[in-house]
Amino acid sequence: MLLYLINPYNPLVSIVKSKLNRWNNYTVWKPLGLLVVAGLTPPDWEIVVFDENVDRQDYSALPSPNLVGITAFTSQADRAYTIAGEFRRRGVPVVMGGIHATMCAEEVSRYVDSLVTGEAESVWENVLNDTIQGALLPVYSGQQTNLSKTPIPRHDLLAHGYRFGSIQTTRGCPLSCNFCSVTAFNGRHYRHRPIPKIIDEYRMIRERLVLLVDDNLIGTRKEHISRTKDLLRAIIASGIQKKWIAQVTLNFGDDEELLRLASEAGCIGVFVGFETISTEGLKEIHKPFNIRKLKGIKTAVGRIHRYGISVVGSFIIGLDIDKKHIGREIASTAKHYGLDAINVLFLTPLPGTRLWDEMESSNRIILKDFPRDWRYYTLTFPVARYGHLSWLEMIEEKDACFRGFYSYGGILRRTWEMIRQLHNPALTVVCNLWYRRNTLRLDRQAYETFDVKPGEVPLQKGWMENDSDTRGK
Ligand code: SF4
Asked: CB 3.0 to 4.6 Å from 30: which of 38, 166, 372, 375, for a disulfide?
């Protein structure tokens, strides 16, 4: 039995950029979800994983498999349907899972034979058995998994060429920001994998740089932090010499022991979701956890730096309270905090979030010719009507923010600061130059493909690859 597992591309975020600049390869993450599904698949199935973010395939030149499994974030959905159509025309059954299949089940079911909603672990065996019987069900509803029972993902199935290895140690997030679909998909209950299994998997990863893909590595409660410290002690005791980056909440900077262990275990950088610079903004997006931390951010960032760990802050533009000059304000606040790099995204109503429900019910979503328009849901395109900013102003504010933060003077100052504190500045320099180049040049090129008339829905003048007409059967 032959199984193809496919991660579809989105030309706005993957192939195009990685071909333009080799540094963009640092933004291509492994499709870990597919490797988990491969780990759940018995050995009598031959498995081939295709990651279109790295390489495109001519599927028509390949042998027909017995089953195709596709995963997709919302921004990949349109391409996923094109791939599904290609295989279904050849009589190959297609099953789709992942966050978009869970949040837009009705839409997805129009383009595939079967879909898996939620986490795949509890139902994947049934999908394979029913495929053999020729009796695939239209929907398999996956439950939240007991992570002590999940197999180790099949890292061996992906080719070389990725800058980062990937590993997941927890699922779920105890917070519930209104724009985020993590809690709707993985739940608020913070589940963690057994530490010995994580170490076994960590040892198998061949890349020297690793991304810990957990939405929140450390959690928010005392017991979460304590479990993270146990994990870090186990990594140190294993003697595995890798460097890693993780996503954490602001409380990471509160605990000296946690910082010391993270540094000894190989942590070189953390992504922190600041989201917005004001209490009002945090109230608007329902992230009260950060309000309590607002006053101590500069001190916490300084403490993290003392352990040789860089801090990349993520911010959102497009909140109802955001007005003209918000870009410059974010840039100067980020400099005041002492952040090493920032990433700025547009507020995007993703299906399954409370933000989607709010914007949809008030008719504020403007790019909604679905499934075609899902390709703009990369968080780097304004897709809605925003409180005080037009489509063009949103882009101008993002530009102003990046110009303010990533000026050459600013990059030099941050690099010098790292050297002064006796830290290796390589990560900061690479990160800064990459963001400067990407946002000021590549994203701008993509925005310029739009026709924007005041008061009208922006339309793209010419799509990079017109594959929409091959969707479906
Ligand atoms: S803290 Fe991060 S992962 Fe958790 S709900 Fe908010 S945005 Fe999502």
From this structure: 166
Residue 17 in tokens: 């950029």
Q: Domains, the chain, ranges and CATH?
A: 2-141 (3.40.50.280), 163-451 (3.80.30.20)
Note whether 256 and 229 are within 8 A (CB): no
pLDDT recorded at residue 464:
43
Q: By CB neighbour count within 10 A (0-12 exposed, 13-18 middle, 19+ buried), where does 325 fall?
A: exposed
Q: Which two tokens stand for residue 53?
A: 């973010």
How far apart CA 463 and CA 449 sit, in angstroms, is 8
Q: Which residue owns the Cα nearest ligand 1 atom 2?
A: 215
Q: What is the pLDDT of residues 2-55, one digit of tens each?
A: 999 999 987 666 444 555 556 556 667 889 999 999 999 999 999 999 999 888
Q: How far is the CA of 159 from the centre of ligand 1 (A)?
A: 31
∠ CA 348-181-281, nearest 5°, is 55
Burial class (CB in 10 A: 0-12, 13-18, 19+), 237: exposed
173 lines ligand 1 (CB under 6 A): yes
What's the angle, vertex CA 202, arms to CA 124 and CA 190, rounded to 5?
60
Q: Is the pTM of this model over 0.70?
A: yes
Of 225, 231, 424, nearest in space to 310 by CA: 424
Burial 430-448 (b: 16+ CB within 10 A, else e): ebbebbbebbeebbeebbe
Q: Is 211 in the pocket of ligand 1 (CB under 6 A)?
A: no
Contacts of 383 (CB under 8 A, 6+ apart): 346, 348, 349, 365, 366, 367, 368, 373, 376, 377
Measured from the CB, is residue 120 less than 6 Å from ligand 1?
Answer: no
Q: Which residue has a Cα nearest atom 6 of ligand 1?
A: 177
Whether 52 and 15 have beta carbons less than 8 Å apart is answered as: yes
